[in-house]
Design brief:
With about 375 residues, this protein is an alpha+beta fold. It folds into two domains: about 40-115 and about 130-155, no CATH class; about 165-350, Immunoglobulin-like (Sandwich), CATH 2.60.40.420. About 45% of the residues lie in helices and about 15% in strands. The protein contains eight helices and ten strands. It has helices at about 1-25, 40-65, 80-110, 125-155, 270, 275-295, 330-340, 345-350; strands spanning about 165-170, 175-180, 215-220, 220-225, 230-235, 240-245, 250-255, 260-265, 305-310, 325-330. It has a five-stranded mixed β-sheet, with no helix packed on it. Helix 2 packs antiparallel against helix 3 (about 80-110) and helix 3 runs antiparallel to helix 4. The chain is elongated, with a radius of gyration of 31 Å. It binds copper (II) ion. Copper (II) ion binds next to loops. The site of copper (II) ion has 7 residues, from loops.
Length: about 375
């Protein structure tokens, strides 16, 4: 409501200023009503070009100063540094090119503004100039693309070397489930057609597959630090995308197929919480939350920083809230946590001992 009111006030103020300019123009004695731009108009346009240049430089500096703190902390995966470096170099090149070309564009617009008696020079082409401004971007872009392809191939090298931990990320509207291969580190066969809600086989695991019985299904992803993880992504319904920003990892989850991504986490959750940027961010957020708490508003509990798995494909109305907590911990902590988890076999056996009561047939189904 307040926003709407502010907008209305702004529009009205704009109209008022416009009307006042018109009155001012009409009140000028030697007012020229010609639609053709005169030298004065051209000069004003030239200065406006400069003003716009200052505006875009200003807003760039302002954005760096104001919004840099919202960037992600340093990468927490082994490949993340390489990825960030490529990104940084790309941005530096874009920044330099943008700064120079904008200055040239606006300066020349000012320098060659219209002037009475001036006639534009007819200049058909200049092969050498065109060659230069074609070949430089070609070389720079080809370099960036080749480097990008090389980095991508490096990152996407999903293989079974170094005994990776096998984890399935299962996407559905609107939540994530993770599945570990269990003691044998091999995922049992699964298919959405085998989903059996009544028996709580929600991921459609093949119960006759011996590899499936020791699988562990969880709602909070735990990863041991320093061990490579091979993720296998599945989707039950629509396109989702498994996005783990802190690890610079993202892969689409496509119904009907398994996609893969692999990375090695190198910082535990406890370590990332010590990162100065993260400490600062938590402090800022909790200051806002304390204010909310004082007013008795919702979402005011103190917040702790966590790694997170998000969905990065708009997959429906609750897409925004499709997330799962990731905890990176030491091998010992991971082992301790894993021991407290039930295997798929145990869960199914638990379901078996309590057959659903059928009021017509009785417990044993006769
Ligand atoms: Cu989704």
């Amino acid at each position: 409501m307040t926003t709407a009111l502010i907008l209305i006030v702004l529009v009205l103020v704009g109209i008022a200023i416009w009307q006042m300019t018109k009155i001012f123009e009409l009140s000028q004695l030697k007012a020229e009503n010609s639609q053709i731009a005169n030298d004065n108009d051209n000069k004003n346009q030239g200065y406006l070009m400069f003003a716009f240049l200052i505006f875009i430089y200003g807003i760039t500096i302002f954005s760096f100063w104001k919004y840099s703190k919202f960037l992600l902390p340093e990468a927490s995966s082994a490949h993340g540094g390489e990825y960030d470096y490529l990104m940084l170099v790309s941005f530096i090149i874009i920044f330099i090119v943008q700064t120079i070309t904008q200055a040239l564009l606006h300066y020349f617009s000012y320098k060659y503004k219209g002037k009475t008696g001036n006639k534009a020079l007819f200049y058909a082409d200049n092969d050498r100039l065109e060659f230069i401004w074609t070949i430089i971007p070609v070389i720079v872009l080809a370099g960036l693309i080749l480097w990008g392809l090389y980095t991508w191939t490096n990152i996407m090298d999903v293989n079974d070397e170094d005994d990776p931990l096998i984890v399935e990320l299962y996407a559905q509207q609107f939540n994530w489930t993770a599945r570990y291969g269990g003691a044998d580190n091999v995922l049992g066969g699964a298919n959405v057609r085998m989903i059996d809600i009544d028996r709580a086989n929600v991921l459609g695991l093949d119960e006759s597959d011996t590899y499936a019985s020791d699988d562990v299904i969880v709602k909070e992803l735990h990863l041991p630090v320093g061990r490579k993880v091979n993720f296998k992504m599945r989707s039950q319904d629509v396109l989702h995308s498994a996005y783990m920003p802190h690890f610079r990892a993202q892969m689409n989850c496509v119904p009907g197929m398994t996609t893969e991504f692999s990375f090695t986490p190198i910082k535990t959750t406890a370590e990332i919480r010590q990162d100065p940027d993260v400490v600062d961010k938590v402090k800022r957020t909790n200051a806002i939350r304390a204010e909310r708490a004082a007013k008795g508003e919702d979402n005011s509990d103190p917040w702790e920083y966590d790694y997170i798995l998000l969905c990065n494909k708009i997959c429906g109305k609750s897409h925004y809230n499709m997330q799962m907590k990731i905890i990176v911990e030491t091998q010992e902590e991971y082992d301790t946590w894993m021991k407290t988890q039930q295997t798929f076999g145990q869960t199914m056996a638990g379901n078996e001992t309590e057959p659903a009561f059928n009021p017509v047939l009785g417990v044993d189904g006769n």
